[in-house]
Amino acid sequence: MTNTSISVPPTPCIDRVGVHERCARFRTRSIKTQAKNAALKTVLSMIDLTTLEGKDTPGKVRQLCYKAMHPHDRMPDIPTVAAICVYPTLVGVAKKALAGSAIKVASVATAFPSGQDSLRNRIADTKLAVNEGADEVDMVISRGRFLAGETNYTFDEVAAIKEACGEAHLKVILETGELETYDQVRKASDISMYAGADFIKTSTGKVQPAASMEVTLVMLHAIRDYFYATGKRIGMKPAGGISNSKLAIHYLVMLRETLGQAWMHPSHFRFGASSLANDVLMQLAKQQSGAYQSLDYFSND
Q1: Three-state SS string across 153-166, please?
Q2: What is the pLDDT of residues 92-137, one digit of tens each?
Q3: Is residue 76 part of a domain?
Q4: pLDDT digit string (tens) for 1-57?
Q5: Where in the sequence numbering do the catalytic residues fall?
Q6: Between the CA of residue 187 and those of 27, 34, 39, 140, 207, what are the distances in Å?
Q7: Domain count across the chain
């Protein structure tokens, strides 16, 4: 079922000061006028609109799907978001609501957000999501076992979930806020990619700190090195805490300068930040009209 014979390269030591200095420079970039408008549309096209609450209902998911397909009816030239992300039991609702659109249905799985369950149950959770129609699966690694040094287990669990995904793409959530160091983030990134991840993702959004530019840069460097070694492009998804357009554009600058234009597409980069969508829409409306609309004009879901 798994292939532990695949060799994962030794983890390089991360220069913490260098990472922070590089990210500080990304935050000084200023993008204006037409370039800003294009960047905002790119950000919108990369968002995974997400609802992952115990009180989620089919009605709420259908409303979110409508918003995904119709982000702002008075701006017909803007793109839709990349995906809707829900729990496995609501995948079928989202799939039906999004029928005829290009928007993907993503589902969290594997005992999200803790990952504290048997591998057998986590595989079953994945298969449920896929059988319901999920195009993408967002799994969580077992952080406790990884931090205990059981890195072979981490490799095997990712490989097993990848196999269970079938044709669905696999996003592997590292929950970087629990991994403690950049070296651990890099090691988990490498293991996940060599085990079969199609994307690596920072966070569940349930733990603080969630995404940061510094952690994302460490993961982008891992993706770059993996591409140099294998020729395969792995996607990246920062999730949690990215709530405004200015910060999202800084992430795009970092992405472009670290990995290049080939990654500047929803097939290789996503934002896991539903609240970001409204701020992007507000900024796009301002670009067109010259005045800000109130956030009251946009749905909260």
Answers
A1: HHHHHHHHHHHHHC
A2: 999 999 999 999 999 999 999 999 999 999 999 999 999 999 999 9
A3: yes
A4: 444 446 899 999 999 999 999 999 999 988 887 899 999 999 999 999 999 999 999
A5: 138, 201, 237
A6: 26, 39, 31, 15, 20
A7: 1
